[in-house]
Amino acid sequence: MATPPRRPTNPFAAAEAAFKPAKKPAAPVRDPSTAPNVRELVSIRIDRAVLDHFQEDGPGWQDRINDALRQWLAAKG
């Protein structure tokens, strides 16, 4: 019986398999906070005009954004 070739029959497929990107592990599932009204640190992208509007009154702009979102949520529900 003949010995199999030392090189794969399709070198392109072998190269693709060798350099295939590794799959990223799934992000861990986070349970929601159990304590009520606890703030979470998040990162969001906001239009510059929106950010300028909330920052023009000085410190506390994050609280003002949070309050505006709470009012929107209450009006929606």
Explain what you see.
By secondary structure, this protein is mainly alpha-helical. 42% of the residues lie in helices and 0% in strands. The chain has three helices and no strands. The protein is elongated. This is BrnA antitoxin family protein.
In short:
With 77 residues, the protein is mostly helical. The chain has helices at residues 11-18, 48-55, 61-76. The relative contact order is 0.06.
Mean pLDDT: 85
CA-CA gap between termini: 76 Å
Rg result: 27 Å
Overall geometric form: elongated
Largest sheet: none
Order of helices and strands: HHH
Structural class: mainly alpha
> Helix segment count?
3
Would you report the number of β strands? 0
Query: Roughly what fraction of the amino acids lie in strands?
Result: under 5%
What proportion of the residues is helical, as a percent range? Answer: 40-55%
Unreliable stretches covering 5 or more consecutive residues: none
Keywords:
77 residues, mainly alpha, 42% helix, BrnA_antitoxin, BrnA antitoxin family protein
Could you give the topology of this structure?
Layout: H1 11-18, H2 48-55, H3 61-76
Protein name: BrnA antitoxin family protein
Organism: Mesorhizobium huakuii
Pfam families: BrnA_antitoxin
